[in-house]
Here is the input.
Amino acid sequence: MNRTSFALKPLAFAFAVAAASFSAPRETLASDHADGLKTAIDLGADITDLFAFTSPKDPNKLVLIMNVHALSFSQSRFSNSADYKFRIRPIENAQTLKPSASKEETVVCSFAKGAFLVAPKQQATCVFNFASGKETLTFDTRTDKFTAGGSGERGDIRAFAGVRSDPWFLDLGRTVKLSNGELADRTPGKNGLNGSNILSIVVEFNKSRLASPLVAVAAQTVRK
Amino acid sequence: MNLKHLLVFIGLSLAAAPLGCAEEEAPPEETDDDLIFGQGTVDQAGIVESTTMMLAALPTSSQLDQYNREDPFKIVGTSYRATFADRLAQFDRADGRVDWKPDAAAAWADRMASANYLVIDVSKPCAYAGHNYLDIERATLTGRAYTSCGGRVPNEDAMDTTINFLVRGPGASVIDSNALGDGVDQATQKASDTFPYLADMN
Here is the structure.
């Protein structure tokens, strides 16, 4: 273990404790933000939201977005020791919406390089594993094109990784009350995530690559 | 950057100063967090509020970490089914009515206890200014045909959809005169229609 890694590990721990103290309150940030004690500490692998839609610019493309790290700022980076997985399975029974137990296509993004707090630029590698074959995109997570992000593309596949505005919105107090059985009144609420940022992975590809038009999509973070 | 972020940043900056790590960069093959967090699945996501509303009232519930560590397509824990069913029944009674039919409620509890995923039909159009989220599930639970792509579009109010789904049942609309909501209708910045869709950082 060299001096740098020795110094960074207590730093990471300090961050984890600080993050936990701020992000494991009695009120949750949901929709999936810090939804447990472990994910409230392990923010780099804490999924906050998953989106799946066809592109407004090109309906022939499927867009998948996985957001993590509900306390992101300009220096935030993805974990180098986690795989960020989009998992897609065909739904074989339209009545039950039960996905296939065996067929699966994936997009798995992983990260390397960079350093905690001081060097946010990482090298992202996203592997698109379709039934028709495998393709890999590699790109930097900080480029001049974005304030704090980077992207890569080849043919119909494209990926972005970096800091974005958190798209989730809710009134925290009312949500907690509802979670305990109390309905909110109809007056305007207050967005508890106003001004928040997340780390986002955005991938898109031709929907013709899917095994079926009706699919199930899940996001998963796995520490290696 | 809001106050919470600022406090975290200031605290970490102070903590970092005496450690003297700013002048050196970690070698590419090393990670800075693997010793703390171990290995295996940390989190999985599909349905909005699958954990913090549907599985527990508070983020300190012991079931949450366990559920987060499950394979989203093969959830094996046996304790979730009863909790999902109980929580759904509580939400259903919140407005003084029981809207969920027993078969539909059982089907939803079974679904959430066995897997956690979004359903999207890419052959259908997505309503970028409307409602797609849970459309396919609601249609299936009520025996009607769905019209949107389902899935989930960034600007749609998935919290309001969730509230109406849980409290008023799968047949309830999120836009009718009786619709419930949390009173917040959009994020800090709206997503755009161009890649990478989500707005630039605040």
